[in-house]
C-alpha cells in the first residue's frame, strides 16, 4: 500500500447494527503528527483502537508499520506506544517502578529498563519524584508519567487519546513542549483531541470526522483557508436592537447567528466593521479575530451537542 506508517482504505467498524466507522481512508507519514478531530461518537476512538491493534476491523484494509493487525498484532504492539484517554498507572508503585515494570512487559532486560527509566523521568521532568508513589501526584505529573511510560519501548508510532484533557494551561503547554521534542526526534504521533488550539499547535495534518466518515482533511492552515475566511467579526447587540443576520449579507462572505452574537466571516474584519457602521448598525461590542480551526470544526460538524 506504500510507505506510510499507517494506511487504511475503506476502513470500517461495526458494533451490531451500528456502524461507528464507515469506510474511511487514512495515510500517516513517518515523522508527522496526525490528528483526529470530531464530536463525541464521530468514530475517532474506534479508529484509534483499530490502529492500536486492540479492536479488529469489520471491513476494509489496514496496515500499521507495514503489517496487518489481524495477523501481526503482537509484533505491531511491540513497536508502538499508547497513551489512553484515562491514566491507568499503578497507583501503589512509585514513579520509577511504573516505568521499570512496564518495560519488563516488552521483554527488556532489568539493566536496560533501569537506564531507560532514568532517561524518561528526566524527559517527563519527574526525576525529583522518582521514588514517590503515584497516587499523590498532580494530574499533570500523572499525564507526563503516562506519556513517559508509553515511550519505554522506543516506539516508532505513538498514539495519544486526548492527551491533555482536564489539565490546567501550564500543564498543557509543558506537555506540548514534550510532544514537540518527540517530533524532533522523529517519533510519529497520532492524536485525538477536543482542543482546537492543541490541534493547530501540534498537528501537521488532521482529519475532521463526523458520523463515522471523514468530513475534511488537510493541514490546519489548509482547512481554515478552505472552510472559513481569514478573519471573523463578532458583533453583540442589545436584544431590542439586534438586526437580522441577512442585514449583513452584502458585507460578509458568510453570517452565522448565535444566541448572543453574530459572526461575520470576512477577508478583512476592520473593513467589514467600518461597513457595518456605515450601514447604520451600532453593536454594543465588536471584535475582529483570526479565523480558527474551531470555526472550521463547528461549520463541518454543527453546534448541536452530541452525547
UniProtKB/TrEMBL annotation:
<comment type="similarity">
    <text>Belongs to the ABC transporter superfamily.</text>
</comment>
<keyword id="KW-0046">Antibiotic resistance</keyword>
<keyword id="KW-0472">Membrane</keyword>
<keyword id="KW-0547">Nucleotide-binding</keyword>
<dbReference type="Pfam" id="PF00005">
    <property type="entry name" value="ABC_tran"/>
</dbReference>
<keyword id="KW-0067">ATP-binding</keyword>
<keyword id="KW-1278">Translocase</keyword>
<dbReference type="GO" id="GO:0016887">
    <property type="term" value="F:ATP hydrolysis activity"/>
</dbReference>
<feature type="domain" description="ABC transporter">
    <location>
        <begin position="6"/>
        <end position="236"/>
    </location>
</feature>
<dbReference type="InterPro" id="IPR003593">
    <property type="entry name" value="AAA+_ATPase"/>
</dbReference>
<keyword id="KW-0813">Transport</keyword>
<dbReference type="GO" id="GO:0005524">
    <property type="term" value="F:ATP binding"/>
</dbReference>
<dbReference type="InterPro" id="IPR027417">
    <property type="entry name" value="P-loop_NTPase"/>
</dbReference>
<dbReference type="InterPro" id="IPR003439">
    <property type="entry name" value="ABC_transporter-like_ATP-bd"/>
</dbReference>
<dbReference type="InterPro" id="IPR050763">
    <property type="entry name" value="ABC_transporter_ATP-binding"/>
</dbReference>
<dbReference type="InterPro" id="IPR017871">
    <property type="entry name" value="ABC_transporter-like_CS"/>
</dbReference>
<protein>
    <submittedName>
        <fullName>ABC transporter ATP-binding protein</fullName>
    </submittedName>
</protein>
<dbReference type="GO" id="GO:0005886">
    <property type="term" value="C:plasma membrane"/>
</dbReference>
<keyword id="KW-1003">Cell membrane</keyword>
<dbReference type="GO" id="GO:0046677">
    <property type="term" value="P:response to antibiotic"/>
</dbReference>
Amino acid at each position: 500500500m506504500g510507505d506510510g506508517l499507517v494506511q487504511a482504505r475503506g476502513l470500517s467498524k461495526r458494533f451490531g447494527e451500528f456502524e461507528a466507522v464507515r469506510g474511511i481512508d487514512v495515510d500517516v507519514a513517518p515523522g508527522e503528527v496526525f490528528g483526529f478531530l470530531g464530536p463525541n461518537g464521530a468514530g475517532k476512538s474506534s479508529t484509534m483502537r483499530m490502529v492500536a491493534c486492540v479492536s479488529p476491523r469489520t471491513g476494509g484494509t489496514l496496515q500499521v508499520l507495514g503489517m496487518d493487525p489481524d495477523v501481526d498484532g503482537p509484533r505491531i504492539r511491540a513497536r508502538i506506544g499508547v497513551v489512553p484517554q484515562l491514566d491507568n498507572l499503578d497507583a501503589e508503585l512509585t514513579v520509577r517502578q511504573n516505568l521499570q515494570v512496564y518495560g519488563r512487559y516488552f521483554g527488556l532486560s532489568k539493566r536496560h529498563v533501569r537506564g531507560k527509566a532514568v532517561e524518561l523521568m528526566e524527559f517527563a521532568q519527574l526525576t525529583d519524584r522518582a521514588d514517590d508513589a503515584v497516587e499523590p501526584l498532580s494530574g499533570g505529573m500523572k499525564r507526563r508519567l503516562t506519556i513517559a511510560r508509553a515511550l519505554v519501548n522506543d516506539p516508532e508510532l505513538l498514539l495519544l487519546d486526548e492527551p491533555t484533557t482536564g489539565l490546567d494551561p501550564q500543564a498543557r503547554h509543558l506537555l506540548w513542549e514534550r510532544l514537540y521534542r518527540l517530533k524532533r526526534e522523529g517519533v510519529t504521533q497520532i492524536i485525538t483531541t477536543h482542543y482546537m488550539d492543541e490541534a493547530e499547535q501540534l498537528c501537521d495534518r488532521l482529519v475532521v470526522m463526523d458520523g463515522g466518515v471523514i468530513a475534511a482533511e488537510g493541514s490546519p492552515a489548509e482547512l481554515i483557508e478552505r472552510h472559513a475566511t481569514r478573519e471573523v467579526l463578532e458583533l453583540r447587540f442589545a436584544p431590542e436592537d439586534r438586526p437580522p443576520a441577512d442585514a449583513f449579507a452584502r458585507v460578509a462572505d458568510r453570517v452565522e447567528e448565535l444566541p448572543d452574537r453574530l459572526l461575520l466571516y470576512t477577508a478583512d474584519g476592520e473593513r467589514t466593521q467600518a461597513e457595518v457602521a456605515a450601514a447604520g448598525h451600532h453593536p454594543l461590542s465588536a471584535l475582529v479575530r483570526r479565523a480558527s480551526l474551531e470555526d472550521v470544526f463547528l461549520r463541518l460538524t454543527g453546534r448541536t451537542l452530541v452525547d
